[in-house]
Amino acid sequence: MNKRLFTSYLGLGWLPVAPGTWASLWPAVLFAVLCYFGVPKAVVWIILCLVAIDAATVCVWFAPDVVQQLGSRDPREVVVDEVAGQAMVFIGAYSAGGTQIMITTAVGFLAFRFFDIFKPWPCRLLEKLPAGWGILADDVMAAVYAAVVLQIFAGQWIGSLG
Predict the structure, then answer these.
(1) Which of 51, 114, 127, 149 has its CA 20 to 30 A from that of 120?
(2) Contact 72/126 with Cβ under 8 angstroms?
C-alpha cells in the first residue's frame, strides 16, 4: 500500500502550486454541489462527517510513516489534513442554517485557508504534537476558527432575512 498516495489525497499533494489549497477545495466543492442539488441537510452532514473522519484517520495512521520516509516533520505533500479540516468547517455550516450556498462555500473555504496558512494561537503550538496528530491538530483548530467565522456570517444572513 502506498501511504504517500493516501496522505497526498490521491496525488493532490504532489501538485507544484498550492497543494493544500487544492486539497481544501475538494470538500468545499462537495459541500456546494450537495447543497445545490438539494441533498437533505442530514445527508450532507453525514457525508461531510465521513470525509472528515476518513481524512483524519488517514492522517493519524499513515502520516507518521510518510514523515519518516521524507525526513520532514510536516511534508508539503501531506494534504489529507486540509481535507479533514475543510470538511469540519462545513459540518458546522449547516448548524448555522446558511442559505446562500456559494457565499457560504466561499466564506468557509477562504476562512479555513486563512487560518490554516497564518496559524493563530494555538494552531502552531498544536503542530508540535507527535507525528500525524500534530499534522492534523493545527488544521482542526483552523477549522474551529473558520467555523466560528462562518457561523457569524450565516447569523448575519439569517438575521437580515427576518
Answers:
(1) 51
(2) no
Mapping DSSP to helix (H, G, I), strand (E, B) and coil, where does residue 158 land? helix
- DSSP symbols for 71-134: T-SS-TT--HHHHHHHHHHHHHHGGGT---HHHHHHHHHHHHHHHHHH-TTTHHHHTTSSHHHH
User: Considering its fold, how many domains does the chain have in total?
Assistant: 1
Residue 11, domain member (yes or no): no
Q: What is the pLDDT of residues 7-25, one digit of tens each?
A: 999 889 999 999 999 999 9
Domain that holds residue 36: 19-161
pTM across the whole model: 0.89
